[in-house]
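quick one before i forget lol
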Amino acid sequence: MAAKIVPVTTEPYTLGFIGAGKMAESIARGIVKSGLLPAAHIRTAHLGTARRTAFESFGVKVLDKNSQVVEQSDVVIFSVKPQVVKDVVLQLKPLLSEKQLLVSVVAGVKLKDLQEWAGHNRFIRVMPNTPAAVGVAASVISLGAAATNEDGELISELFGAIGKVWKADEKLFDAVTGLSGSGPAYIYLAIEALADGGVAAGLPRELALGLASQTVLGAATMVGNAGKHPGQLKDDVASPGGTTIAGIHELEKAGFRGILMNAVVAAAKRSKELSQG
């Protein structure tokens, strides 16, 4: 008979990170800053001074061993490199309980494998992206076989502390990788190119870069908040015979939209190849 799944309540519970890297730090900082969970209820393990100091600086308890983290946590988030996650989960398997909610933010590792290695199915897979570091991540979650809707709501709330959260079937995660996982790099290129254009048009470098980054931020905020389709927002700023439509014409001649679409599809294809390899 399977063990009864015990809900993780809204009362302060313990949250443990297996892996003390930058993503784990970003998630933990966001959770503490939001007030969702006191720092004293969060723990991780690391022997390196720099990583220990990073977590201890905002009150997280840093232990010496991953086993200690598992033993002291109701929710366990695996945040390690893809090439080591199997060994890490298998090492901890004897300590893992179905009373615990397990979460993975490891890129390219499927729920079915995580569940098999852990020995139970109360697992949730989350794919955040690097803007988690500044609290504006785009995260997508998918529930494992035994994860409940309440589990999903809890993890959505946790990751909502570092940005916005969507739920999706795991089969879409390669496409998610191609868009939100790799997407920040496409936007960095766009910001750099816009700044270079500003310099070419006569602006000082620092001013051009500041204007480019703030313009991208502002445009993204408009899409998120204005309640209009981006095509409509584009039409609103492109007046007849004006400067904006002249620039858009050049982008269309160069195949700008098709290039971005191709980038997402290529990254998604590569993600699928890596997850099967």
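fyi The domain at 181-276 is CATH 1.10.3730.10 (ProC C-terminal domain-like fold).
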